[in-house]
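Data availability (excerpt). The following record was deposited with the supplementary files.
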Amino acid sequence: MDSTPPSIMVWRSVREGGDTKTKKARRTLAIPRRCVDALKLHC
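Predicted structure:
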């Protein structure tokens, strides 16, 4: 199993070309363990 904690990437202000306005607009958010467990049960 991967040792990287589960996370999602959030890109605000996405442009038509698929890139964000700036690199500061990009965020990585950790996913709470209970959400990871629920997603695993769902699959």
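Summary of structural features: The radius of gyration is 14 Å.
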